[in-house]
Amino acid sequence: MKISDARAVITGGASGLGLAVARHLVGAGGKVVLLDVQEGPGRAAAAALGSGAAFMRCDVTSETEVNTAMEGAQAHLAGLNLLVNCAGVVGAGRMLGKSGPMAGDFFTKVVHINLIGTFLCDKAAAALMQSNAPSADGERGLLIHTSSIAAFEGQIGQAAYSATKAAVAGMALPIARELARSGIRCVAIAPGLFHTPMMDGMPKEVQESLAAQVPFPPRLGRPEEFAQLVASVFEIPMLNGTTLRLDGAIRMQPK
Fold it and tell me: Inter-axis angle of helices 16-27 and 223-235, to 10 degrees?
């Protein structure tokens, strides 16, 4: 598949990595629908991207909303062959914090957004993609999961976040195996320390300290680099059922 032919739904597309993917795809001639709960920023982002983009409000934890949004996106795009799951929350918190044990509801919320939200979007998109006309390779679509290096080197306070990011990486292979008969691939990307809006909320000295931990290049990742990898995965059919680390060779310490 060529990136100019991408007809993509991007969850969490109003900001950060999702918005960077949208910019890259639209710039290459593709078309996108941004899904997000941030209605104001989402509409503004779509307007700035121009005629190749649209916005639909969607809470990825709601199966009904996801199904409706995915069908609406397919109709708007006149097709759907790429889903990029970027919706998520950090969910930082210690299991045994200063105020006591972590509330089960807090852990559950992180799971609902990061993991169940990804699954709901996957199945809704795949149900539509399976009817696409196949490419010369028999390909009909691609599902991308946003994992994290926290899936492998989770730090103190990341129990909930790491669990969900390990899970979205772990389900890439069984999903890829199941959907192979329909010509639909599934790949997870595990970014390291990236310059996103969340990072902007940290003091400059903290950002510089984090960047210095990256072996090479010794800086924070750029969202556009994540977008470039999404585009490469879309165009390389042999990438399937795996997790790609995008982290400058960093391996996180306990804290």
Answer: 50
- Angstrom distance (rounded) from CA 49 to CA 30: 11
Encoded tokens for 67: 């199904």
Q: Are strands 96-97 and 31-36 parallel, antiparallel or unpaired?
A: unpaired
Active site residue 35: no
Rg (CA), the chain: 18
With left for phi above 0 and alpha for psi between -120 and 50, is residue 102 left, alpha or beta? beta
In our burial notation (b when 16+ CB lie closer than 10 A, e otherwise), range 94-116 reads eeeeeeeebeeeebeebbbbbbb
pTM for this model (two decimals): 0.95
Each residue's pLDDT, cut to its tens digit, for the chain (255 residues) gives: 999 999 999 999 999 999 999 999 999 999 999 999 999 999 999 999 999 999 999 999 999 999 999 999 999 999 999 999 999 998 889 999 999 999 999 999 999 999 999 999 999 999 999 999 999 889 999 999 999 999 999 899 999 999 999 999 999 999 999 999 999 999 999 999 998 887 777 778 878 888 889 999 999 999 999 999 999 999 999 999 999 999 999 998 888
Backbone phi, psi, residue 199, to 5°: -70, -35
Q: Which of 55, 107, 119, 161 is catalytic?
A: 161
Distance CA 227, CA 67 (A): 25
Q: E-assigned strands of 80-191? A: 82-85, 96-97, 100-101, 141-146, 184-191
* Tokens standing for residue 8: 């993509």
